[in-house]
Design brief:
alpha/beta
Length: about 450
């Protein structure tokens, strides 16, 4: 009798586990039809012979000390072979050199046939209606309405000499070189060679004009990768009168005292965020794990943003917590969504973890504030074999299946109806982003 009971319990729990990991077929079929808005990506522009795309990220990871890929991001992941089949009609089930060579030939043929339309064609294969492109500048093939620009504005936070900050890790040495180049680019855009002498002039004659120019040139949001450069703890708000002397003293060329420089950065972050809100530009912030073997994980905890997200003067600025705190911080993001101006996407997790684990993240988000949740791929240019289109297909495919698993579990647990499940799927994949960026039908 006891043995039968144990066997019955085993079968019961196995059935429960299998049920929770299997998406409802009808629901998944409907989800696969939804044209998505990709809230976060790094698509490459089309290149002429000998040209290099150096604008797909302000802080590219390629030159850093290599770190081992996760299981999901390794080339042998079967999802990448599935991507070849779905995108390029790859007829094989292996990755032999001869077959991969044939794949390259097919890719080249499609690119030649599509010409400047190739990026749009890729989005069609991925089922993506619109992709928000995090790039320093847009480029050939990346045109609205399919691709919408999200520029990087960390460089505006670091107008002083950054040699001490750059010495903290080998990664930051490279990253601050990049930020200095980008700041010079922004200064040139407003007809300046160097930052002005006072903080008031810097904010009103450099920062605000750069943001306004970005808006005029098509930006729909702005992006901070601050966690690669410093902690996300932006401290208490301080008026300009308390930090302007820091700027005035150290803009002359001396290396700033770290504590004072942090206070200036905190002020500038808030100023940029306030101006972005005035211009109707949501502020995207990298949260959670990042690339590089020297990445300082604890500084990327989204809970460190409390002082910013609780600042009444910034309530007209919408903040998007990119990657949903990927790694150990996803639970914090769920709670932060209670704030009226805070949203999150689950990009990066789409290619970093398994579909099953992604479904857990998505379900948590949907059980808290489903109106605040957005899909994102975080696709990026990679190797010729597994490039941005394969990364994008894997991320999109995994996201749709994970969303279906999460919603199926919620239906089975009696939390939602089938009708509500499909509504939540549309919200996460499309409608929440469309509402946040003010895109009504035909307005994009």
């Amino acid at each position: 009798m006891v043995k039968r009971t144990v066997v019955a319990l085993v079968f019961f729990f196995v059935a429960i586990m299998l049920r929770s990991q299997t998406p409802d077929p009808q629901l998944l079929a409907e989800i696969n039809k939804i044209k998505a808005i990709d809230n976060h990506s790094h698509p490459p522009k089309l290149l002429a012979a000998g040209e290099k795309d150096d604008d797909f990220d302000a802080l590219p990871c390629d030159p850093l000390e290599p770190s081992d890929p996760t299981t999901i991001t390794r080339p042998e992941n079967p999802q990448y072979t599935a991507a070849w089949k779905a995108i390029y009609n790859y007829p094989y089930n292996d990755r032999s050199p001869e077959h991969v060579k044939e794949l390259f030939q097919t890719k080249q043929k499609v690119m030649l046939e599509q010409g400047d339309n190739f990026p749009n064609w890729v989005l069609d294969q991925l089922g993506i209606e619109t992709e928000l492109a995090n790039r320093v500048a847009m480029g050939r093939g990346l045109q609205p309405p399919r691709f919408r620009w999200v520029p990087f504005d960390d460089a505006l936070m670091f107008p002083l000499k950054n040699s001490m900050l750059a010495s903290e890790t080998p990664d930051r040495k490279f990253f601050f070189q990049r930020e200095s180049i980008l700041l010079r680019r922004y200064l040139k855009d407003v007809n300046r060679d160097v930052p002005p002498a006072t903080l008031l002039e810097y904010t009103t004659k450099v920062v605000t004009p750069v943001l306004e120019m970005q808006k005029q040139n098509g930006a729909v949001a702005i992006k901070f990768e601050a966690a690669y450069l410093r902690s996300l703890d932006f401290g208490p708000a301080e008026p300009i009168q308390l930090v302007q002397q820091v700027y005035a003293h150290f803009i002359k060329g001396d290396v700033p005292i770290p504590h004072d420089y942090t206070r200036l950065q905190n002020f500038l972050f808030r100023y940029i965020a306030h101006e972005a809100g005035r211009l109707g530009l949501p502020v995207h912030i990298h949260t959670g794990g990042g690339c590089g073997s020297y990445f300082m994980l604890m500084g990327s905890n989204p809970a460190l943003l409390d002082s910013v997200l609780n600042d009444p003067s910034l309530r007209k600025t919408n903040f998007v917590l990119l990657h949903g705190g990927a790694g150990p911080f996803t639970k914090y993001v769920n709670y932060l969504l209670m704030k009226p101006n805070v949203y999150a996407d689950f990009s990066e997790q789409t290619w970093l973890i398994s579909t099953r684990r992604l479904s857990d993240t998505i379900r948590d988000l949907l059980e808290w504030y489903p109106e605040k949740v957005m899909f994102g791929t975080d696709l990026y240019p990679n190797t010729p074999e597994i490039n941005w289109e394969e990364v994008g297909w894997q991320a999109t495919h995994s996201s749709r299946e994970a969303l279906a698993i999460a919603l199926t579990g919620m239906m089975q647990d009696g939390q939602i109806t089938r009708e509500r499940a499909l509504q939540l799927a549309h919200m996460a994949l499309h409608d929440n982003a469309a509402k946040l960026y003010g895109w009504t039908e035909g307005s994009k």
